[in-house]
Amino acid sequence: MAVNLPLPLAENLKPVAGVELGWAEAGVRKANRKDVLVVRVAQGSTVAGVFTRNRFCAAPVQVCREHLAAGKGIRAIVVNTGNANAGTGEPGLANARATCDALAAQLGIAPEQVLPFSTGVILEPLPVDRITAALPAAIANAKPDNWLAAAESIMTTDTQPKAASRTVQIGGKTVTLSGISKGAGMIRPNMATMLGFVATDATVSQDVLQALVSYAADHSFNSITIDGDTSTNDSFVLIASGKAGAPAIERAEGADFEALRAALTDLSQELAQMIVRDGEGATKLMTIQVEGGKDVAECRLIAYAVAHSPLVKTAFYASDPNLGRILAAVGYAGVDDLDVERVNLWLDDVLVARDGGRNPEYREEDGQRVMKQAEITVRIALGRGDAAATVWTCDLSHDYVSINADYRS
Amino acid sequence: MAVNLPLPLAENLKPVAGVELGWAEAGVRKANRKDVLVVRVAQGSTVAGVFTRNRFCAAPVQVCREHLAAGKGIRAIVVNTGNANAGTGEPGLANARATCDALAAQLGIAPEQVLPFSTGVILEPLPVDRITAALPAAIANAKPDNWLAAAESIMTTDTQPKAASRTVQIGGKTVTLSGISKGAGMIRPNMATMLGFVATDATVSQDVLQALVSYAADHSFNSITIDGDTSTNDSFVLIASGKAGAPAIERAEGADFEALRAALTDLSQELAQMIVRDGEGATKLMTIQVEGGKDVAECRLIAYAVAHSPLVKTAFYASDPNLGRILAAVGYAGVDDLDVERVNLWLDDVLVARDGGRNPEYREEDGQRVMKQAEITVRIALGRGDAAATVWTCDLSHDYVSINADYRS
């Protein structure tokens, strides 16, 4: 079940000049499903990424870091689902490199110009032969208007493909951004989401692109959580092909930079929220806004404590305004000098707790009314500063347990 | 459903000279259930406690700290279930004090000689009149052999009462320890459990008693988690009546101190594990042992990351050896310089991962065999030092969701 997540329509997804996408059915884990994606990137594009901070980062993430550092210019991306190639040691690294080698040979580029990505079960050997055997088919059907099929080809427990586009004016030219994302469980990104790819035909220098991808990740994928489990494979990649003919953006300032950053952040937030809306078993989308903090870090600490509390998440699932559970999570979040007598709590427009205690005017039926909605904003004011942070999450339902008790079967 | 948790038998619970327990049905939240407990403590006893570090600590916890600091000698304890008296601001404090005043008046002691405790729903006004009205009945039936009824009277979502006893020889005298605990959800104690009370007839000075209660809490209640939610009301209290006639223990060293500490820690671990065995919806008890760490703190960080991961907990519920989820949790626990290539993972006696990757000799059927057990040890060796830590937890089942979606109804 997904929360207000309409199916993306192919005609709403805009091609990005210089970027072609092709898929194949490799049978990595299951037959007859799109499970390999190849993205071809025009020569002269810049590519930047952010990756998981999980110490058990997957083999492909390690290879991505190496290949980006090599600086030869990225020309292709290859993604497989069904197997994360994580917790696989040296053989896993060899398999990730073998995938790059095979794609590079077929495209006539260097292996260091390929970025590999994997998502799926951890701790199992990657069936690299099945993946490389499927590459010719993916290359053959690569085309610029394949964004919807590309989104489908990276799904695992997702119930729907996730894709969106934006346009923005840069120096009188229309610049396009299109992106896809996937993920529904093991979602508490720390640097990036499970997998997110955004391409634009803007012209952006490498260091500015890195600044853009970090900023967008922090304000989107790095502000969502489903189950608090930071994946071994989180990756968010931004491609700039330069094919729009717009002025080059070579400094992280100015109107063009800010326009592109705003469009990218907006697109990334939509893609990130799609992941939460499709969270495993999700029936509600909760926006946790913490304000009045001393710094952003403490606001995020409290927002995540609330977002991760199984008791809070099950109360939302039940539409039960058992809102003391939210205060309990605020209290144990780890802000040791928090003065609870200054804390206010709203559920949408309903003031539930004032000065750390129950608001005398609060009526249970008002809380009940908000709790029944599919989308709810929890606003927590700390009364100790000007900082704020927002985290998006979903509820914890019976279906979450069913999905994760059955995932491999 | 509880995991290997036999009903305690009244005849196995030993009276502690100087301590009498009595219960009543006050109808705090529901009619016809034991929901008030009064414990009378002989004059000259020492009493020490540790309490929640949740910033939204409940009104009774604040009053307990005040009354212990007053140093007048604690003579009575009063507990109610059905309402936590937390998130209740100044009226909550007044209600906690009113409860102490009423009990003190009836027992002819000072209000500062009473410790109040509450457990139940947060953010709702305490029905103090119903509690004070029930005190005479509780006082009237107070007697030394009432430990089982006392355990029953502090239950909330617990499916079974939790109580146990120990004896130990101190200076040729038999010293008895008996204790009770409660809790099944909102369990991730930080200083102490939801509610735990242990009494002994040993003679122990106040500062040694404080050292004992802290040590025992750290090695028992502070090493369990069910859902990661640190309660607003966690309290663990130790009473020493001195009625056994054993030599006084006035220094935190020596054979007598160590014998008492060992018996107390053993009893506290049994009471704490009872809480996990009765965890909301629990079908499995998992012991998470992390060893080979640089310090205990990092071992605990990793053990709790594994114990809190919803993906790990649902895999255990399903008896699915999807063990990469454990490595993912180790990797995101926050030990930034962890060398994953030195990490080994066992499930009971089965070596699943060696040097950070899948053990080549590991067979899925071996993992499956262990996963089907009701009690499972997860052992994680970090290979970077000599420190170790153990955390006990349970799985995440459909029933956890059902219980917490229905708790208030």
Automatic annotation (TrEMBL), chains A, B:
Functional description taken from the UniProt entry: Catalyzes two activities which are involved in the cyclic version of arginine biosynthesis: the synthesis of N-acetylglutamate from glutamate and acetyl-CoA as the acetyl donor, and of ornithine by transacetylation between N(2)-acetylornithine and glutamate.
Single GO cellular component term: cytoplasm
Organism: Cupriavidus basilensis
Name of the protein described by the UniProt record: Arginine biosynthesis bifunctional protein ArgJ
Biological classification of the source: Bacteria, Pseudomonadati, Pseudomonadota, Betaproteobacteria, Burkholderiales
Positions of the record's site feature: Involved in the stabilization of negative charge on the oxyanion by the formation of the oxyanion hole: 119-120
Family: Belongs to the ArgJ family.
Catalytic activity: L-glutamate + acetyl-CoA = N-acetyl-L-glutamate + CoA + H(+); N(2)-acetyl-L-ornithine + L-glutamate = N-acetyl-L-glutamate + L-ornithine
Alphabetical list of InterPro entries matching this protein: Arg_biosynth_ArgJ, ArgJ-like_dom_sf, ArgJ_beta_C
